[in-house]
Amino acid sequence: MTDYIVTGIFAIINLLVTYFVLKRFLFKPVMTYMKKRQTNIENDLREAQSKIDEAEMRTMEASEKIESAVKEASGIVGDAKTSAEAQRDAILASARQEAAELIKRADGDISRMRNAMLEDMKTEVAELSVAIATKVIGQSVDKQRQKELVDRLVSDELKGRVDSDA
Fold first, then answer.
1. Where on the phi/psi map is residue 140: left (φ > 0), alpha (ψ -120 to 50), or beta?
2. 94, 115, 122, 157: which has the highest count of C-beta atoms within 10 A?
3. Taking every pair of C-alpha atoms in the chain, what is the biggest distance, in angstroms?
């Protein structure tokens, strides 16, 4: 039994020596490494969190910039539409005015041409009637007198036609 006691004491001493050797040469460096590793991980986590926060801030800034760009683009498009409508209205007004002027000029030209044709017709009718009257009557009628008669006849006839057209 003493043998067991001595063996037990040596085993306890051996265990204590092994514990202190392991503590000194194994546990201490391992614990130091673990603390250093834990510190590095905590630093990396803080750095990652700060980068996440920075990324979120940049994302918000980008969203705000995009939103302001969209608003600005909408304003530009609205201004362009307004400008285009104003330009369209100006072009239409100008075209209408030009068309009205062309119609007015055409009406004036038509009126002048009608009056010129009537005058030509009066002159021709007067000349023809003088020639017919000279042949029918066989005598010469004063051309001035004949012309006055024809002018009066044609004027009365034209006045009657214009009144009936109206």
1. beta
2. 122
3. 192
Nearest-angstrom CA–CA distance, 35 and 67: 47
Distance CA 31, CA 101 (A): 103
> DSSP letter at 1?
-
For residue 6, give both structure tokens: 């001595």
Q: What's the pLDDT tens digit per position in 38-77?
A: 999 999 999 999 999 999 999 999 999 999 999 999 999 9
How many Cβ atoms are within 10 Å of 158's Cβ, its own excluded? 13
> With contact defined as beta carbons under 8 Å apart, do 133 and 141 qualify?
yes
Question: Closest Cα partner for 134 from 147, 121, 122, 123?
Answer: 147
Which domain covers residue 104, as residue numbers?
2-165
142: alpha, beta or left, given left = phi > 0 and alpha = psi -120 to 50? beta
The pTM for the full model equals 0.42
